Amino acid sequence: MADSLLAAFVWAFQAMLIFSTDTLTPPLPVMVALDTVASAALLWRRDRPFTVLAVTTACHLVTVVTGQNTWVSLAATCALYSVGRYGATRRAWIVALAFDFVMSAAAQLLHLTGGERPAVTGTVGALVFVGLGQLLRFRRELAERARAELAEAAVRAERRRIARELHDVVAHHITTMNVLVGAARTTMSQHPEQARETLLTAERTGREAMAEMRQLLHVLRADDGSAAASAGYGAAALPALVARVRGAGLPVELVVAGDPVEVGPVVDHTLYRVVQEALTNVGKHADGARASVRIVYEPGAVEVEVLDDGPGADVAEGGFGLDGMAERVTACGGLLRAGPRPEGGFEVRARIPLTAAEGRTT
């Protein structure tokens, strides 16, 4: 549609110049025909820019060599721009140089045969219009490349988010089940009833893992990115998490300080996942340790602290543990500190400002 309007405008503009001239060489019908052919060729300027330039240049040359300098070929000018915009770069510059050379030679020939002295400004016109087309083409390619890079970055971020979710769900429940099954195996011969209860707890943990996985897959399909954060695992679910971990054999206590405030789903989910991952690491890497979880609500921030007194520093496996916690907290505008304690054991502390956190959930 745009090319059709351009062709119509060019035809009308050049026709106005033709009909405003008193004497025409070649005759009026030939000039109108040249105008029509050159303008119509612009309909294919995107797909065949070099062919269109050849046609418009041929029409323009007829007017130049016959001394009709009052007709300025707007069609050829548009074709030159199209060569720079849609043609191959190296070929476009070669064609621009050739166009300027041919036009200059034709003008000089006209001068030698007794016509008007040609203007020298037209000798570099092709380079200007091809350069303009190349510039706009380069700018568009940069914009498209930037959009592609943003899309790739979004895909990578989504993959990291899915990896964090899968790691937090699978690692926690599998670790708990391993501990429970190991405890049942050691007590089965002497305390079969106790082993039976432990295995039943492991079975319930497996069912919880499957339920959480199904819920996770459901929210990952949602269009709203915050839906994954509102999967029902937040600060309100921490007592159940601590009880489950305690039932698996890890002594842990939960303390909530300050007046609980309502936070956005992303922050709420982050608090739960930080505690879950920290306790999972204690169970995997600090055998025989005791742990404590402390949630502190302050006027402008919420802080979570998970401590253990294990014999060594526990570290996250698979590259998604501590890194995943740090990414979650950073996404909420907070800071995470994790490392060995001077008195022994390991600590995980996360502090999230409520103003920044709320701003990310609207």
UniProtKB/TrEMBL annotation:
**Which chain regions cross the lipid bilayer?**
52-81, 93-113, 119-138
Can you give the residue ranges of the Histidine kinase/HSP90-like ATPase domain? 266-356
Q: What EC number(s) does this enzyme carry?
A: 2.7.13.3
Q: Point out the coiled-coil segments of this chain.
A: none
Record-linked InterPro entries? DUF7134, HATPase_C_sf, HATPase_dom, Sensor_HK_TwoCompSys, Sig_transdc_His_kin_sub3_dim/P
Has keyword DNA repair?
Answer: no
Listed GO CC annotations: membrane
Name the Pfam families on file: DUF7134, HATPase_c, HisKA_3
The reaction(s) this protein catalyses:
ATP + protein L-histidine = ADP + protein N-phospho-L-histidine
Keyword tags: ATP-binding, Kinase, Membrane, Nucleotide-binding, Phosphoprotein, Transferase, Transmembrane, Transmembrane helix, Two-component regulatory system
* GO molecular function ontology, one term from the record: ATP binding
The protein's name: histidine kinase
